[in-house]
Model the fold of this input.
Amino acid sequence: MNRETVQVLIVDDDQRFVDQLASDLTEEGFRTLSARDGREAIRILAEQPVDVGLIDLSMPGMDGIELLKQAAKIAEEVPLIVITGHATIERAVQATRLGAYDLIEKPASFDRILSVIDRAIEKKRLRQRNRWMAEDILNRYRMIGAGKAMQRIYQRLDQISAADTTVLITGETGTGKELAAMAIHLRSARADGPYVRVNCAAIPEPLIESELFGYKKGAFTGASQDFIGRFRQADGGSLFLDEIADLSHAAQAKLLRCLQDHVITPLGSTDSYLIDVRVIAATNKNLTERVAARSFREDLYYRINVVELEMPRLAERIEDLPELARHFLQQFCEQYNRYIEGFSSAALQLLMEQEWPGNIRQLRSIIERLVLFTEARLITAENVAAVLKRPLLTSSDQIKDYQQARCDFERDYIQRLLRICNGNVTEAADAMNIDRTNLYRKMKKLGIPAPRLS
Done:
């Protein structure tokens, strides 16, 4: 977290307390604002960007309870932390019902205050990211297809979303398991809560426990500050565990305990936390076979496989290919600033005749190549045939000199992109979502000369 971008509003009529807390927060890198009562706080919330608020309950004029009511109307997204020495149980319950993120009793240690602020900011950012992801899913990566196979998937998604239980999504690589997981979250009662994705295969085994369950500052070398972990980040929402079959036995045991008890304990801490998380797991492996081979725990398998959703292969929903192809065509034409009207019927027919072992992900890659390498306004069967002769990202091709195939494609890709961008390396790097220095490094490695500026 970059604390220098975080602005904290302190609302309290105790000026000595405000000054001391503002000083301590400033030393930690935060920016601060202050108000002596609720009315001044409402004015600040309406006029200035605030990331988190610390508010007292007992203040002259507009008190903290009324402030919570008014703030919900104008700054609903700002987490407000009640920090007071005058809270009765009734007022604490009332503050919680009005949306207070947490309640801290005075006197409180600065470490305690800092920890709650960090958690509030992290949760706010996750919610913002979820909204962006939801818009991205609906606008760019929406689930596409009206064939029988996808109609069954949509029906199952509605059923699964309504049942707040663990889900196991299975299917080959590239079939859209992550999209299905996000769709389940967005259609569920947890849609307003966080959605957190963890790629289990990408996390080294020694780090999986700290990644999932968090750690205290100083728990191990490099733990310079507290980390709440993915489970607590997802509290009140959904946690997507991708490639769950790749978890080690030790990690499987820890995950099982968490799913059974709904409690996590961060590394290096004696504190335990109740969690309210819906776990959605996914794998392209056959877990039944892995259970039989004792490489995956049987009890964990039954714990995550309360409801199963199997995503169909592209070959099983080939009637959706034209719509998918047109969607990817529009997407990449916008990305690369190209104008291609569409596909000839023969081009679509040739695409539909392929086996597609890489499923939708492979189709997407092929359409991207077609956008880059097609000069005409209509993609023909000849264009498709030419691109299909290029190395594809299939398992057999990876075995057969994968590195060379990758270099060949990357060289063609960058050279073509530079021509489209009229030799502008910065523009090409932006299109690839990498920085210009990285692109120059790739060009040098692949033997691509730097374009001459005209």
Notes: The first helix runs from residue 15 to 27. Residues 137-141, 391-400 have pLDDT under 50 and may be disordered. Residues 7 and 31 are 5 Å apart (CA to CA).
